[in-house]
Each structure stands twice: as C-alpha cells, then as structure tokens.
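Protein modeling request. Please complete all fields; requests missing the sequence field cannot be processed.
Requester role: graduate student
Desired output: 3D structure, token encoding
Chains: 1
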Amino acid sequence: MGITPEARRARARLAAHTRWHPGDDLDELTEECLREIAHSRADEAISSLTVLVGKMSPGQLARLRSLATGEVAGWPMPPPEVRAWLRDMLDMTADAVPS
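Delivered output (99 residues):
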C-alpha cells in the first residue's frame, strides 16, 4: 500500500518542523501528524473495502457485521463513525447478499 498525498504532507511537515525548529517540543505536532497519517490510511482502507463489499461472500460479510457491532473478541472496538459506516454499507448490501 503506497503512501497517500495527505500522509506524505503530514510526514513532510513534521520533518521540516524538526529540521528548522530543533529545540521545539514536537509532541503535539507529532501526535497531530500521526493522527493525519492514521486517518489517511483509514480512508484508503474504507475506499478499498467499499469496492470489494459487493464481491464478498456471506461469511466475509458476517465477519464485517461482527466488527460493526463489536462482537469480535480480542479486536479493539472501531470508533463509532466507523461502526456506523460499516452498518450502513452492510445494510445496502443486505438485499444483494443474504446474511
């Protein structure tokens, strides 16, 4: 998986700030850049999943439903907006693929 433009910008911004302001406390900027990179990766994963959902087997869709409802033991609970998106996406496919 390649790096997205948003992640590239966040990484470059952190590197430039580190280079030009070496004595600054970078904790807050580092956290902000890491969040931007994580959001960029999540957006890319969601886009990929959206393309594939129509081709998934009933078993794969059931696993996604479990993730959307938080029923997967040992996995961290996705954020509420991700769970809502998964439920909406799975509801759209309910007519096309039986659960």
